[in-house]
């Protein structure tokens, strides 16, 4: 720093930090854990995330162009996000209360097979459905469905002809997640509690 009139003067050096995965492409995929935010908590640890990544089918292919996977702040009702153009996936923190008292019927219908496989207790109520998650079931849902779903969006982008947009959308990401689940399930239950 330069001193002028007895005060330090900041230089105009605005180079982005090389570890900032929002500003620069990374040499390796960064795994990051951010503050979950008020009313939320992370159910997944970095070590659990790393273990599941190594179990993922076609990881070497889908990891191309991916810069980071972040355990991000909660954004109810959003469960995960893929940021096109940045190569960043967010797995959103879970609400502090595990049970969801007003789940939308279409969400339950779309994920019924996975909920049944995980042994999640869900029942109709006057708001739609009440889903009674255990911590292990919610963690498995995030690792076995949310992560592969967001990776499905990334795979959609990197396999598209223009590589600029995710043209096949939600249906492609869901199909990708369901295919990954079939391969991940036996490996996951062998390593983790459900």
Q: Can you put this structure into words, describing what you see?
A:
The chain has 194 residues and is an alpha+beta fold. It has one domain (20-98, 133-191). 39% of the residues lie in helices and 22% in strands. The protein is built from five helices and eleven strands. It has helices at 46-55, 59-62, 105-118, 135-159, 169-191, and strands at 2-4, 7-9, 30-33, 40-41, 68-72, 80-83, 88-92, 94-95, 100-103, 121-125, 128-132. The protein has a four-stranded mixed sheet, with helices on one face. A three-stranded antiparallel sheet has the order 9-11-10, with helices on one face. A hairpin with a 2-residue loop joins strand 1 and strand 2. Helix 4 packs across helix 5. The chain is globular and about 70 Å long. The termini are far apart. The model has no long low-confidence stretch (mean pLDDT 89).
In short, what is this structure?
Helices cover 39% and strands 22% of the residues. The chain is an alpha+beta fold.
Provide the descriptors you would attach to this structure in a database record.
single chain; 194 residues; alpha+beta; three-stranded antiparallel beta sheet; four-stranded mixed beta sheet; globular
List strands and helices in order, with pairings.
Elements: E1 2-4, E2 7-9, E3 30-33, E4 40-41, H1 46-55, H2 59-62, E5 68-72, E6 80-83, E7 88-92, E8 94-95, E9 100-103, H3 105-118, E10 121-125, E11 128-132, H4 135-159, H5 169-191
Parallel strand pairs: 3-5, 5-7
Antiparallel strand pairs: 1-2, 4-8, 6-7, 9-11, 10-11
Global structural class: alpha+beta
Number of strands: 11
Cα distance spanning the termini:
55 Å
Give the number of domains. 1
Strand proportion: 15-25%
Spatial strand sequence of the major β-sheet: 3-5-7-6
Estimate the mean pLDDT confidence.
Answer: 89
Number of helices: 5
Shape: globular
What is the string of helix and strand elements? EEEEHHEEEEEHEEHH
Helix content: 25-40%
Q: Please state the oligomeric state of the protein chains shown.
A: single chain
Contiguous runs where pLDDT drops below 50 for at least 5 residues: none
Radius of gyration: 20 Å
The largest sheet, given as strand count, sense and whether it forms a barrel, is: 4 strands, mixed
């Amino acid at each position: 720093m330069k001193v002028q009139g007895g005060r330090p003067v900041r230089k105009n050096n605005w180079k982005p930090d090389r570890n900032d995965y929002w500003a620069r492409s990374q040499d390796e995929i960064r795994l990051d854990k951010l503050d979950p935010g008020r009313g939320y908590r992370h159910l997944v640890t970095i070590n659990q995330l790393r273990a599941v990544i190594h179990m993922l089918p076609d990881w070497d292919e889908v990891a191309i162009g991916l810069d980071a996977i972040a355990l991000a702040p909660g954004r109810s009702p959003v469960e995960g996000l893929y940021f096109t153009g940045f190569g960043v996936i967010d797995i959103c923190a879970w609400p502090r209360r595990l049970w969801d008292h007003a789940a939308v019927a279409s969400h339950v219908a779309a994920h019924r097979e996975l909920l049944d496989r995980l042994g999640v207790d869900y029942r109709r109520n006057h708001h739609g459905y009440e889903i009674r998650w255990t911590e292990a079931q919610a963690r498995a849902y995030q690792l076995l469905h949310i992560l592969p779903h967001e990776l499905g969006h990334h795979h959609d982008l990197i396999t598209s002809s223009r590589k600029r947009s995710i043209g096949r959308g939600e249906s492609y990401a869901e199909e990708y997640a369901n295919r990954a689940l079939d391969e991940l399930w036996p490996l996951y239950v062998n390593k983790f509690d459900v």
